[in-house]
Amino acid sequence: MDEQNKPQAAAQPSAPVPESRPPYIAGGRPDNRQPRRDRGPFRGPGRGGQRSGGPGASSHGGSRMGGGMGGSRNSMKRMMRMKRPRRFSGGPGTRPSTPASNENRIPSDVIPPIGPDCVRIIPLGGVEEIGKNMTAIEYGKDIIVIDAGFQFKDEATPGIDYILPNTKYLEERQGQIRAMFITHGHLDHIGGIPYIIDRIGYPTIYTRQFGAIMISKRQEEFPHLKPLDIKVITGNETITCGSLKVKTFPISHTIPDSMGLIVSTPLGDIVFIEDVRVDNIKGVPTEEEEKQYEQFAGKEYLLLTMDSTSIEKPGFSLSESVVIDNIEKFIKATSGRLIIGTFASQVERILAVIRAADKYGKKVVVEGRSMKTNIEIIKHLKLLDVKNIITAEEIDNYPPDRIVMLVTGAQGEEFAALMRMATKQHKHVQLKKTDTVLLSSSIIPTNYNAVVKLKDNLYRTEAKVITYLDSDIHASGHGNRDELKWIHEHIKYRFFMPVHGQHYMLRQHAELSQSIGTPKENIIVPDNGSVVEIYDGGKSIRVLKEKAPSNLVLVDGFAVGDVQEVVIRDRQMLAQDGMFIVFAILDAQTGRLRKSPDIISRGFVYLRESQDLLRDTRNIIKDTIEDSARGMNPLNVEMIKANVTDTVSRHLFQETAKRPVVIPVLLTI
């Protein structure tokens, strides 16, 4: 590639901007799960629920409901099976209209146009969480985008698949986007591309080889999208993007071909470093690291941004070379099968395990979809001769002491390979007393309970279990405090903005920068959507009071967009206290009940053992409906339903201290 490469978008700054689209798009699912079936406000009397059709409920859990919901359980199930997942017509790239109303959405700030002598930096994600990393850098009419990751769901987003950066700011300016740069191939930096790329006009993507293969492999799961324009760089080119120039340089991380960026602007150079660590031997950086950062000597940079994930850990992190040496000792000495559970993203470690197994004449079995995908990429790039890899079906053809397994699931994921082995659900591998299991990963805080469950199941098999607490078999890909300080000391900069982490991590990183001499007023701790501007010839920095849109954008089944807060809130309430459905038939003339109301409860109380509660609730429903309908002509059914919801919710909370979602269904005859 030439020393300077001009992306196609830069040559056509006046290209017409595609028409804006609603916030929901059709999107392929990133895994092999079946899509969810459409469902209405409740799922009818299917499996797992409890029903009460009145005092004469049958012993199997409920009677057929009276009134307008006739039909057997089997017929209801047949009706549900006839439903099909929502398909969006219109061809690739089209989006259906948003199924929810736009009321109650937070209005976006009107962001003033960028000034004539101003550099604007907007973190669109990754500075209030671990994940969904994405940043825009803008000067004049030119924008570059750095990374486009996603975040996995958490307790606050039940039923959601992934959380994406909000790209509305870029969608409104897609004609100005000159390029996208991907720093490395982890999903929190590339996972959002299939959901975002068509919204921002398919800019050229620049990345190194391993990242390019990871992006292309993932894109195969989204055939409705146009082919991506990916340009592979070696790590030392300079790419011209309008008035911005981007130079890349290699950095140390847990995946091959990780890189940092130096973005040259008319006001000065920005050093942009995402996930990073410093290779070291007992706290002393290696010669390679020293040489790598020599390029920054003798110059002042306008702005430094850097990873904050492990800022609260003191000292230097454990060297990956120590981890590899220790794992190699286990591979050499273990007399039975050795099962190594680690992150599929720890590509350097995977390569080292395969090399060590080959060195001692052992075969490697790879289990787990993401692990197998990365092995295929390793083969494609010819990073290693993998002739010693065999399939799980061949495992019994070799003595146990000749087998090393690389598996996913060290975080306790329910359907991952290691958990299936631990629970005796794996098709080909049953753990034995003679097996040794290495958990070569630390515990992600949100996965703590799942890892405890995994360990319980592993110990029940009587296999020997070794974790990073027992032996030095795991090192983080994110630098500890002293590593980050070492990088700070090798780059002279005017302004600092920490990225990649929770807010408290960014604050601690800001304190580190201040402790080594950066004035407090030269440090910005941003939120998602903060509009940071460097102005006055590069002498001043500020954060505008206006923010770019930063409300959650969620992948929810086939839909991608702003899921209403009320939907998430209802899911949380259903998970906590269940639901309580009231079905009643009213006389359209008198407003009186035609029969005793039917009740369906799921996840609330066991109805068969709560007959007193049911009797009292039916009486309250009857009184509320008839009192509300008295003198009302014609009947205002919506008002009656609201009154029923309020009175039943209040009564159930008083009696049970629970707040189920109350859904009244009223029919008039």
The order of strands across the largest sheet is: 10-9-8-5-4-3-25-26
List the domain count as a whole number.
3
The share of residues in extended strands comes to 15-25%
> Count of helical segments?
16
Compute the separation of the termini in Å.
76 Å
Which descriptor suits the 3D outline?
globular
Question: What is the quaternary state of this protein?
Answer: single chain
Largest sheet: 8 strands, mixed
Task: Summarize the entry for a quick read.
By secondary structure, this protein is α/β, with parallel strands linked by helices. The protein contains 16 helices and 31 strands.
Task: Note the main attributes of this structure.
single chain, 669 residues, alpha/beta, Ubiquitin-like (UB roll), Metallo-beta-lactamase, Chain A, Rossmann fold, eight-stranded mixed sheet, seven-stranded mixed sheet, 16 helices, globular
